[in-house]
Amino acid sequence: MKNILFIMTDQHRYDHVGYSGCGKVDTPNIDRISQGTAFTRCNTVNPICQPARTALAAGRYPHQIGTLAMSGDFSLQIPTFMKALQKKGYQTEAVGKLHYLQTWHWGAQRGKVLDLTGLNGKIREYGYDYVWEAAGKQLMEKSYCDYSRYLEDRGLYEQYLDFAAASGPNYDTPDKRPQDNGEPFPLPEEHYPDIVIADRVIERIKNRPANKPLMMLCSFLCPHKPFDPPASYLDRQEYREEEDFIPGKKPLSEEDKKHLYRKRRAYRAMIHLIDDQVGRLFKVLEEEGILDETVIIFTSDHGEMMGDHFLIQKSVPYKEAVTVPTAVRHPDYLTGGVNSSPVELTDLTATILELAGLDPQKALGREWPAFNNIIPCRSLMPIIRGEAGQIREFAFTECSNEWQMIQTKDWKYIYYPARNMEDSPAELFFDSSKDPEELVNLAGRSEYQEAVEWCRSRRISVMDTTLAAQLTWAPLNLTE
Fold first, then answer.
1. Which family is annotated (predicted)?
2. Are 308 and 318 in contact (CB under 8 A)?
3. Which residues on adjacent β-strands are paired with residue 297?
4. CA dihedral 216, 220, 221, 222 (to 10 degrees)
5. Using one digit for the tens of pLDDT, what is the confidence trace for 211-259?
6. Contact call for residues 404 and 373 (beta carbons, < 8 A)
7. In terms of DSSP H, where are the helices of 249-359?
8. In a shared domain, residues 136 and 14
9. Domain span holding position 323
């Protein structure tokens, strides 16, 4: 069985990797992963951190596992790919951001509200033999994690929290303030979270068990807000004033643009830092003599609007938020293939299981309680091996109870449920082949009604057939 190195970033746009060909940023080390197969139309199943990450662990849609929004905790009763790999004999480890727990309410005050270090044993019950957790830059204001303790041991914890808090809350449009201004990381560079995460991953790879294959989740915190690269990375990044924003509901002011130019620069700098860490990971695999025995997967949980459509952050169905950079480097299939068929983030779950010789339905499904045997993820290996051009006709994405989306190679359909009995549902439909910026809603055009109806029926089918799993809590008194 191959080792698996699963690299994740946080809030990373599809067009901000070198192999995308978009020219936004150079990422030579990440591009090495695309020596296998790059997937240019991989859609997250939910453009919010926790729902995407929990769905990825389970291989199911967020509505199936009760994590539609960033609220509440991922149930330990749900089978995960990590548990399946453990049973198969893998050493399963995670370093960096997991975000399976969102216990605290948004109104909670700053402090050690959720002690992730104290919950390490419970978090490992998701299927990890080892966990070193970094909660996320903004989440650290209320979630005390291993990276928090790392900073606290060095007398840097409160200084970092002050910096994160100063970046302000998250808004959805670029004209709202306060917003972080692309200020550099306030601590010495060696303490930057993604450098520390890479340090720990390298250490764990070097000290891996000799008698087991390794599945390592390396989950970086960048390029998520705050836009805070170390000064050396920010200084090396060119400042550009490129007025290529996709138009939105209102025009960007000059002040908005200046602010976004600074954020774009910092965003690229953070990605350059991640790329350097990926280079370090390649180096340790080569030094340990296991590069040819390791499958490397790269993806993100969702993207970032960065001013396009007069929006920032995520949670919307535009491709800048929904499509994520994805590539799989299988050492036996270094074809440099580029696949543009629609796939889902959770298809990586099924891919990992197939790499371990496991069937996703059997590994993630349960006969009881009801609806636990509905596993929609599909392995990408037929594409990677060159046996198929696509594994699904469309990708499905949802977000909170706000909208659901069907994405094919050429079409995008978005459904907005009615908010009350007096309202009617709303629909958007884009012809992606002719309108890649998703500007013209064609839902009412007669010539597209057949395509709209096709997508509409697929959305209904997904919602009707992927039901929420029922769970248990009462202990049974079983006798032999």
1. Belongs to the sulfatase family.
2. yes
3. 6, 328
4. -160
5. 999 999 999 999 999 999 999 999 999 999 999 999 999 999 999 999 9
6. no
7. 254-287, 319-322, 347-355
8. yes
9. 3-384
